[in-house]
Structure formats: C-alpha cells, structure tokens
Amino acid sequence: MPRHFFDIHDGHSLMRDDEGQECSSYAAIRREAMETLPQVARDEIPKDGDQQAYTVLVRNEHNVTVYTATLMFSGLWVGDLPKPD
To answer: Quick check: is 80 in a domain?
Structure first.
C-alpha cells in the first residue's frame, strides 16, 4: 500500500509529516485529510484573531503533492456587544 504524508500549513509555517500513512485509495487520502484538518484547527485556532486557514498538502512516496484541502475559520462580532480584549 502506498504511503502518503499529510503536511499542514497554517499561513505562516509548514509542519511536515515525516511519518506518513498508508492509504489504499484516493477516497482514503481525502478522508484522512478531512479528518486531520478539524483536529488541527480545534487545537490551533488563535485566541487573538478571528481569521485563520489551515491547509493540508498530501504528498505521495515520491514527494509529489497529490491532494490539498483547506479549512477556514472566520469569526465576526455583530451587534452592540463590546469587543473582547
């Protein structure tokens, strides 16, 4: 089974996956990317802003990017509430 590597880019830096995972199909690659992004975002969304995107770049065993996916967090305050510090 081919090994794929799921690197994460947060708009500032790239966190390379040196371990990778064996994926049996394109659907498995997509599913893993879809499961990875929310896990990363849940722990990494900055406390000091309301805009953040996370992109997973999937590389195959030949170091060629074969799939990308992006998850975007965007918050907006509305109404007369004072903005938090």
So the answer is: no
**75 within 8 A of 69, measured Cβ to Cβ:** no
Residue 85 placed within a domain: no
Name the pTM for this structure: 0.83
Please, what is the Cα angle at 47 between 43 and 48, to 5 degrees? Answer: 145
pLDDT in tens, the chain (85 residues): 899 999 999 988 999 999 999 999 999 999 999 999 999 888 877 767 788 899 999 999 999 999 999 999 888 878 877 766 6
For residue 69, the enclosing domain spans 3-74
User: What's the number of domains the chain is made of?
Assistant: 1
How many angstroms separate the CA atoms of 55 and 66, rounded? 13
